[in-house]
Each structure stands twice: as structure tokens, then as C-alpha cells.
Design goal:
alpha/beta, eight-stranded mixed beta sheet, 44% helix
């Protein structure tokens, strides 16, 4: 009898797990279908309003002058032997100084860290990379090439190529996700972790499933699972959706701070209009659901989490919940009036808070190899 009950219990546990997995993927694909219907309606409405211009967009041939601003640093390239990929990065500050490595988000590239490159080069070797699939870095075509383990390994390889065995790691949005994961898997390589508007991946996964309001704000995660159609929707009307993302009142940069200049916007459009650029950026989303939940969660480095109060995509309650996974000093700063793109629309405040965090504890000497 005991054996029968034991086997029955195991069966029920396995059945519950299968039902949970089925429900998880049913939610994902169901929401994908809903987002597709909404996008098709938007496309149809665009065709009605702008029949001659909807399917017109321009590939920018010449980079704007701001991308060659020498005050931001020197453009460099590195080819990683293991992956065979070439990465582009912009570096400033003296070689041999502590390394501060910047990881950008979606749909950005190294340029999103322009204010921080200027600010921290006096004390650090600052490096802002184009992550795989972005900017001038190589663009693998396969979705599988954007799995978490490959993205994390990219950072390890780049740090080592630069001649360091540890760094102060700074990440925003998707760059923040990779920064969290890198600190989890390579704690000995992260002296301090600074994340901007990106919750710990486990916090995000748990919170989104429990809060429909966040699920609604994350609808792009589901829409981007589709092949090719999201690239089309982001390109029509000469990348109107991307322009709105960076400049609109609801989601844009500088709602209460520095506005994105016309030249800054052209820099983004130059990078994202190149053939294949949107596919590379979207492929980060196309692996996210199969990569969660995480097997490891705990972060052992000191952490600074900066959060824009008016983030249009992420609810603020997730910021405090990140504390659950940090086994070291944790500082959270909510920046009033700041958007999702806080290092660009509130750079002075962001830079000051980063300096304060860097000076805590062991001080700057702890960053040297």
C-alpha cells in the first residue's frame, strides 16, 4: 500500500508539473496570437492612412558626426577565438586603470553610454561594447546564437581579451539582464554590479506571471517571438515605431530631463536601419522564455540598482524585490521623473549616484587587478 501511495504521489507531482508547463506555454502562445492580431490591425490602419509610404524606409548610409566624436573614446574591435565573432567597442581612459564595462539595452548600442564614457574615463578604463547582433559587432543569424549562456560568455571573453580578470559591470535593460547573469555565474569577475532599470531575471519572471498589469507592459516580449513580422512593423513608415519609442511622451527619452537631439536619433536610426540589425536585436527576446526559470539566482557582488520612476515598461515594485537574491550590499535609488532610458535623460544624477556607490566600502582601489 505504501508503495502504491508513493507512486501515486509521484504521478500527481509529475502531472502537476506538466500542467504547469502546458499552462505556461499556452499563455505565451495565446498572448503572442493576441499581439499579432493587434499588430495586423495597426498595419492595416497604416496602409489605409498612408498607402504610398507605409512600406518605405531608408537605410542610413553615412553615420552622423556624433558617432565619431573623439571625446567619447576610440573605436576598437576584438575577435573572440572561441565563438569566432568580432565585437566592436568604444574605449576611453588609460590602459591599466580599473575596467568599467558598459552593456547596452534594446534597441540601443554603445552610444547610449556617451554621458558615462565622458564622466568615468578619468578614473577607469571605460569600455562600451556593441553586444552580439548590434551595431558594428557581428550578427549571428540563428536564434539559438542568442541564448543566455552565449551572451554571458561573450562578456567573459571580452573582459579577458582586454587584459583584466575582473571589472565594474554596468548594464541597462537587456544589458542589465546579461549583467545580472554574469554576476551570478562569474562572481569573482565582478567587483561591483550596477544595473539600470532592469530587475533580476527571476524577479521579472515571477512578478510578470502574477501581475497582469506588468504582463500588459511586457506585450512586446510576446509579439517579438514571431519571425519577420516584428521587423516589418518596426521598419514601416521609415522606422516610425522606433522614432516614437525614443521620442514620444509616454516612452521617450528626456520627458523631464535631456531631450534626444535630432542627431542622436539619427545615430540610432543609422545603427538599426542596417540590413539584419533589427533581427539581431529581436533575437534576444526569441530565446527568453526557454531560458527561464534560472538554475542559479544569487548575486554575491555589491549591487547598485538605479530605477527611473516613470519607466513605461517595468513596474517599480520589482526593484525592491531584487533584494531577495543579493548576498551582499544592495543599494536601490529611485530617480524621480526619470524614464526607462535614465542614463540618457538624467545623466548627471545617474553619474553622481554611481560615483557615490563606487566610493563605498573598499573604495576605488578594490577595482585594480
Amino acid at each position: 500500500m505504501a508503495r502504491v501511495l508513493h507512486n501515486l504521489l509521484l504521478f500527481l507531482i509529475r502531472l502537476a508539473q506538466k500542467i504547469r508547463v502546458l499552462g505556461y506555454w499556452s499563455l505565451i502562445y495565446g498572448y503572442c496570437a493576441l499581439c499579432t492580431i493587434v499588430a495586423l490591425l495597426k498595419l492595416w490602419w497604416n496602409i489605409i492612412l498612408r498607402p504610398t509610404t507605409t512600406f518605405q524606409w531608408v537605410i542610413r548610409e553615412t553615420p552622423p558626426a556624433c558617432l565619431n566624436d573623439t571625446s567619447l573614446g576610440t573605436h576598437c574591435y576584438v575577435r573572440i577565438k572561441e565563438s569566432g565573432l568580432r565585437f566592436h567597442y568604444v574605449a576611453a581612459g588609460e590602459r591599466g586603470k580599473p575596467l568599467m564595462l558598459f552593456l547596452h539595452g534594446f534597441p540601443e548600442f554603445w552610444f547610449s553610454w556617451r554621458y558615462q564614457l565622458r564622466e568615468f574615463k578619468s578614473e577607469f578604463r571605460v569600455v562600451a561594447i556593441d553586444m552580439r547582433g548590434y551595431g558594428e559587432s557581428d550578427l549571428p543569424l540563428s536564434n539559438e546564437s542568442y541564448r543566455f549562456e552565449y551572451l554571458v560568455t561573450d562578456i567573459k571573453d571580452i573582459v579577458e581579451y582586454l587584459g583584466y580578470n575582473r571589472c565594474c559591470l554596468v548594464g541597462h535593460d537587456w544589458g542589465g539582464t546579461i549583467a545580472w547573469l554574469f554576476a551570478i555565474h562569474y562572481p569573482e569577475m565582478v567587483t561591483k554590479l550596477i544595473v539600470l532599470n532592469c530587475p533580476h531575471p527571476s524577479v521579472y519572471a515571477d512578478y510578470a506571471l502574477r501581475h497582469p498589469s506588468q504582463l500588459l507592459k511586457s506585450s512586446h516580449f510576446f509579439f517579438f517571438q514571431l519571425p519577420r513580422f516584428p521587423e516589418l512593423m518596426l521598419s514601416i513608415n521609415d522606422f516610425k515605431a522606433l522614432k516614437a519609442l525614443f521620442t514620444s511622451r509616454s516612452t521617450g527619452i528626456g520627458r523631464k530631463g535631456r531631450w534626444l537631439t535630432a542627431e542622436d536619433l539619427e545615430a540610432y536610426l543609422y545603427a538599426l536601419s542596417q540590413p539584419g540589425a533589427l533581427t539581431g536585436a529581436l533575437n534576444y527576446y526569441r530565446n527568453v522564455f526557454s531560458s527561464l526559470p534560472l538554475n542559479q539566482n544569487h548575486v554575491r557582488s555589491p549591487v547598485l540598482l538605479l530605477w527611473g520612476e516613470r519607466d513605461a515598461f517595468l513596474e517599480q515594485e520589482m526593484a525592491e524585490a531584487c533584494r531577495l537574491y543579493i548576498r551582499n550590499h544592495f543599494r536601490l535609488n529611485i530617480i524621480s521623473g526619470a524614464s526607462h532610458w535614465l542614463q540618457q535623460d538624467q545623466p548627471d544624477i545617474v553619474n553622481t549616484l554611481i560615483w557615490t556607490f563606487l566610493k563605498e566600502g573598499e573604495g576605488r582601489k578594490s577595482y585594480r587587478n
